[in-house]
Amino acid sequence: MGQMAELYALWKGQMIAGDDIAFWQEFFVKFYQAFIEADRWTQYISGVGTTLLVTAMALILGVILGVLVAMVRTAHDQQRPGHRNILLGFVNLLCKIYVTVIRGTPMMVQLLIMGMVIFASSRSFTMVGALTLGINSGAYVAEIIRGGLMSLDRGQMEAGRSLGLNYIDTMRFIVVPQAFKTILPALGNEFIVLLKDTSLITVIGGKEILYAAQGVMGRTYEAMFPLLGVATIYLILVLIFSALQAKLERRMRQSDRR
Questions:
Q1: Contact 204/116 with Cβ under 8 angstroms?
Q2: What is the pLDDT of residue 169?
Q3: pLDDT tens readout for residues 168-189
Q4: Amino acid 27: pLDDT
Q5: Rounded CA gap, 167 and 94, in Å?
Q6: H-helix or E-strand containing 227?
């Protein structure tokens, strides 16, 4: 490391002086100042930790909201003619408004409203970002789950009720396990989008990977390597997530053959 630091200081001095240096030397200088000088790589690692934390929190919130909204809307749509529940109809209307508003407005605008209007006095920018991402994801997850539940034959629900199971138990033990296999690819894609969308919380001060890169850019006045580093980190995380999803899908297909 000592020799690398000496070469960095030498070649950086030549660049500042306007001397001609080789392309690979300039490459080394920019790479060194973006990731190695002053242990700047630790800032990226810290950003990765925040990104994964925000993703996990938003994922949990999104799944909870999505399941609840999907079950309400499915229960409302599957009511028998002439047996409409007024309370269920009202809750279903609220769920439809929630899904319509969230899916009909940009994520960036939602983040700005949450960060600069609703939680304007809060300094927990990362947590506000996680909350916003979770609420946004919940609307998309709800529609994915609802589509999977509605795609199943109505006889599945009637069979469960004929066995003496209530609505919740029928959904839990019969309908949802079958629907999950159908919606898994769409859910996986939504979670990958959620992971990448964490980069947007930078606009309200969330300290994730892109925030770390912007800090490095502000000190080095060089954008290429910090941004390429962020892109590479996100790509690696997405590849890992995709591999885990593919492994889960293979296991579920194998269980179907048994």
A1: yes
A2: 76
A3: 777 777 777 777 778 888 888 9
A4: 83
A5: 21
A6: helix 224-257
